[in-house]
Backbone:
């Protein structure tokens, strides 16, 4: 059974940094594209960043975080990370880890970790 566990959420001041982690078990981690999404009350969940399966060669980011956030994967540890720098109040939300199989229509979500950025 797939399990994605996010950690690292916290309250920080504007301009600060956080590193989120998502530990994955129960699936063949290396075969999954991994991504981070976030959601704030009253809004739809939005894409933040993605790293490709296997060696994580390809990454992409939403325009709002490009240049401030960095995603990478550690396959031996079955963990995906999101380094968030120069945080802004609009980065506040619950951050969710997402896994999508590289070939099949199989998707998994974590329970989320909360990030709060004060001005």
Residues:
């Amino acid at each position: 059974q797939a399990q994605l566990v996010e950690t690292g959420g916290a309250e920080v001041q504007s301009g600060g940094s956080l590193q989120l982690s998502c530990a994955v078990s129960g699936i063949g981690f290396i075969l999954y594209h991994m991504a981070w999404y976030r959601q704030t009350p009253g809004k739809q969940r939005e894409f933040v960043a993605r790293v490709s399966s296997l060696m994580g060669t390809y990454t992409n980011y939403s325009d709002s975080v490009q240049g401030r956030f960095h995603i990478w994967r550690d396959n031996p540890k079955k963990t995906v990370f999101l380094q968030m720098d120069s945080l802004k109040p609009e980065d506040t939300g619950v951050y969710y880890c997402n896994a999508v199989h590289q070939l099949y229509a199989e998707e998994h979500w974590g329970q989320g970790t909360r990030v709060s950025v004060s001005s």
Observations:
- The chain is about 0% helix and 55% strand.
